[in-house]
Amino acid sequence: MNLHFSRKLLSLLPQNYQFSISSTRVLASLLFSTKTPTKPLSSSHSTTLCRRIEAIRDPRVSIVPVLDQWVEEGNTVDKHHLVSLVRLMKDYKRFQHALEVSEWMTGRRFFTFTTEDAAVRLGLIHRVRGLEEAENYFNKLSVKLRTKYTYGAILNGCVREKSVQKAEAVMQEMREGGMTTSSFPYNILIILYSQTGDFDKIPPLLKEMERNGIAQDKYTLRNLIAASVAASDISGVERILKLMEENPELGLDWKLYAMAADAYLKIGSIETALTMLKKLEKWMAFRKKKAVFNFLLSLHAKTGNKDELYRIWNLYKPSTGKSVTDVLYQMKMDGFVVDEETQKDTWGLASYTLDK
User: Fold this and answer.
1) 45 found inside a domain
2) Among 157, 13, 216, which Cα is nearest to 171's?
3) Rounded mean pLDDT of the chain?
4) Which label site among 59, 195, 226, 285 has the fewest CB atoms less than 10 Å from its CB?
């Protein structure tokens, strides 16, 4: 089955396939934002409102009274600041409060409600009240608000719930409505099929993208690697990495190397995993991002190679602010026997790094 999956899936990726960055980044940011909490509220008044709401940490406590009181005090608030507040609450994973702001924004204020606003609210309703309530909300939307954004939101909800039948029904409606013009819906269906083990359904999606002239992007490749890993298809991982490296217009994606390294580690191919980590480290050399360092540290710990772990620590620790307790914890989590000698060596490493 695994070989069949590899041939069918990857034979649909032509040798001269042209990649492009998807035009659906706006939708992806609406539905899949993983950015760190932002600070979107610029004016002093709005910042004060933000602080009042941030102070309420218990999701069971409504923030609507805070919003009402703010207006009763004679303060003003515009839609831009409320939308930013919704995003901030989502970043903090305070979905109940984000939904309350979204509903208050249109229920108590006379602001224009866009299809993007509806998509965000759909996602929040699913998070807070479940898929059935999100479907009910979607079914009540006007025709004007039923766009690729709101369809994408309800499709995302179906994927999160691993409901293949519902997701496929939504996708079919999107096809019939001419809304499958980007890689976004295909990408999240690939996620669904890799999670449910329906690997044979992925190749037809890729063929449909090719037939409709929809370019695959880095998110497509990430999802295909995830599917290959789920299917224990290492040859598929290798082919996808090769495609990325042969298409510079797409840009090297460090997450693909991290996913590949983890896949090789799971099957015990340490040397190949280390090769992937070298490529990941080469990418890291020009960026020195903390997230990449964390991946390197964790994956090197999994290889069981203490020397490599220490080398990565020495190279990047000063620029990432990682503490020695973090590395000790990581070593324990990834199978190192952190005996007295190892602990002494690690603390010595920290002293060496700091002294240097």
Assistant:
1) no
2) 157
3) 78
4) 285
